[in-house]
């Protein structure tokens, strides 16, 4: 064989994707039946599983906590802390809110069911929040759901304010009781001092001192009260955030282990001492953790409640630090004042101090009483963080019909039906074992089709055969060796092809020697050729089917140099035949797509390509299909293969 053999035909896919068109053509009824079945199923299922849906929204307005009343002009009035938007949104999904909402509806529903039908969203840049409820029962049910949900949210946040006010009220009451007790004691001390020392009034020189000291003491008292209030708030938040401390659980386990050891050993046992040391060490760590800094508290964050408590603690600790500095400053100023007036008469100073303490206690009593009244107001009438801005009515309800969902499922059913029809058509088509299209034949043989010859009697392929003869066989001067490897599935079609080729040879009057090296010889009678006014004496037929490779080589060497040699070879090549086959200039595959089994043809062609290299082309010998789809597809694929071949040649050039 010559070294300038063409490259193998390469297609991006290992199969012919256009064969799917044949599957669609032969199984077209699936594209009507399956979509019809699935659209009916989709509509029925949609009607079964879907219901009419009603949605309605209600507007809530967020309000800052007001200074509702102020019973004293000294200091700031009491009010519960403000909550962030994120915290307020989180409270709307509290289990208590959802549970009470579900119980109030008719019929009653669980908290999980309520959570699935409600949603809240803030309008950007405003204090408005939209509460939306969905219902599958009726429009009135959606209105009732959203209104009850809003009422329960407002009630829940009011309870938060009430709880905070109750805690503050308890603290203020205890402080007020202590101040009243101190006030009684100081009054007794003043009376006793006046009786014993017969001293009932101060002199004018201490008047200015008393006034300045009174102001400082008043500010100090206020600062201490505020500091104590902050300490209580910080303590409550710290206890809340550390209520799940892992050290407590570890101490409990260690104490259980100590009890077990003490039951077996004395207190002097090393194991008991070691366990006692571990408990003291953990208790010290627990005590230190209760006084933790900001950075240590971060381990309790990660949830909405933890994050909010952490931020509240940081804010309160900052305020507490400022109050501590204020107390220290006032105490330093008071100490300084006392040093300045240390030379005043002792009796006057003592009496003034007693009266000043009484005055401070009275002022503190008045302030705490005022804060207590303000806290009692929030206990009995907390305003909450919300107010309903706009209630919905029946005209605001948005409905979604189940017919729409049924139609959507029907549409999805059509798509699924078409997809399944396409898959079934593809599976049915690609399960066919024979080679059906020119592109599939090219992929299998890895060669380009050079001639598509139809073996039907009513199809004239003489023009294509003549072009093949002129461009493929006689394109060079003799001697020229051309080998045609037979892989057709039917001898009748191959005989028809050779007869047509011999007729073209007779008309050309070229000297040709036909060597039949296949296992089964062709039964062709040249006298039966339909060639008028031409002689077939220029064709010599050598039957080499039963000859040894050596004899075949002798006969080939005896052929004159002015002849074209065309050999026919079967697909079962023996090793001794290789020197003979490699003597030929080029070779072609003869295939019949409608009869060749794809797997067998692929294996036969692979062996020939391995032994002789890529084929010069592929000759398709078949009957003309009566199907317009098949004929159109074959023409399309031939054009595509030719375009790919030309495009590849252009890129290489």
Task: Please describe what this structure looks like.
With 653 residues, the chain is of the alpha/beta class. It contains 20 helices and 12 strands. It has helices at residues 19-26, 30-49, 85-92, 95-104, 111-117, 139-197, 207-241, 246-264, 270-290, 294-297, 304-340, 346-381, 402-430, 438-445, 462-473, 491-508, 549-558, 578-581, 598-612, 628-652, and strands spanning 53-62, 118-122, 128-135, 386-390, 398-400, 449-454, 480-487, 512-516, 539-543, 564-569, 586-591, 617-622. A 7-stranded parallel beta sheet has the order 6-12-11-7-10-8-9, sandwiched between helices. Strand 11, helix 19 (598-612) and strand 12 form a beta-alpha-beta unit. It is elongated and about 165 Å long. The model has no long low-confidence stretch (mean pLDDT 76).
